[in-house]
Amino acid sequence: MQFTDLNLAPGLLKAIADKGYSAPSPIQEQAIPGILAGRDLMAAAQTGTGKTAGFTLPLLQLLSDGAKVQPNQARALILTPTRELAAQVAQSVVDYSKYLPLKSTVVFGGVKINPQMMALRRGVDILVATPGRLLDLYQQNAVRFSQLEVLVLDEADRMLDMGFINDIKKIIALLPKKRQNLLFSATFSDDIRKLAKGLVANPLEVSVSPANSTAERVEQSIYPVDKGRKAALLTKLVQDNNWQQVLIFTRTKHQANKLTTHLGSAGINAAAIHGNKSQNARTKALADFKNGRIKALVATDIAARGLDIDQLPQVVNFELPNVAEDYVHRIGRTGRAGAAGHAISLVCLDEIKELTAIERLIKQTLPRVTVEGYIPVNELPSLPLNTKPYKPKKPKRKMPAQQRSTSVN
Ligand code: AMP
User: Fold this and answer.
1) What's the average model confidence in pLDDT over 331-336?
2) Which superfamily does 218-403 belong to?
């Protein structure tokens, strides 16, 4: 299939050509005709599948017709879980709409609200927003929804994980009843289906990449290592393999900072990206990472969600995530669009439970790689994976005879 087969307006085809895309991706092939026909949509698609263009292109086409937007109104609302994703989606909207007379803007927290209020004053055709800031703007009368035609929930699963359910419900309650709804999620959990039930009507369901299939495109391995030696092993791996662009995941903000300092002192340019960093610091770190000024970006799961870095060659799990699905999201940062990717995980004995859960989820036993000088004191237990690591039972302590006596002489 070609983009020209999708009945898209010439201005959109021109913008697509400028991007250099040769053909629509599977999600685009499946979603675009349905959205253009005015259907509601439930799409299972992860970042990297081309989902953003999958909803943005038909959305722009639909908005090219219809009434002019009034002050403080938005005709389409795209909700995203994170500021980074909001900024990326907004950039896509700008890129794809460059030959169309449509206005768009993006609003998210962590930056001044006044410029966002100004941008909304004359109304926008497309508003990209994170939920919290959108509600703040609504409360301050900066945005109204009586002209709203389309709602897009992007990465809905992540919005629920991040605790936005109440904000989303509040926002939905503010919208006109008659509207088109597009829901994108990496997976369709029970919670997502529950949310969808009250949201989409007779939706077209499309699925392009079930949550776990990324795992098959990415070469993965486990490096067993003692906890205290992880930072040293990582430094060695970056240096020995001459990695130029590596995304490293830690569980906590504190660990991300600590590791960034460690890498820096070993001469590896690194930056941390997490929730405590200002929006400007995050944007700068991401830009420096993309243009090669820094080699290692150390991120927590939430901060990394939605980072659009194409064909990242190397992902490292410095610590395994608590939730096995997050492993799949993490390694989905590499091996995008069919390119080969590599993901390694540094795993210590404390993380056996997490490792087992991950291997069950992806239905693979990952190869173990040991590095001389870093072999852990206690070997990681080998298969079968579902056996719990051996823990000697504590002997029941018998009380000494004299204490068992009840006599109180
Ligand atoms: P997304 O899944 O929306 O985050 O998109 C992932 C990447 O794929 C983005 O960098 C897009 O620019 C790119 N992309 C989207 N559609 C296509 C296409 N049809 N052909 C090639 N690349 C695309």
Assistant:
1) 74
2) P-loop containing nucleotide triphosphate hydrolases (3.40.50.300)
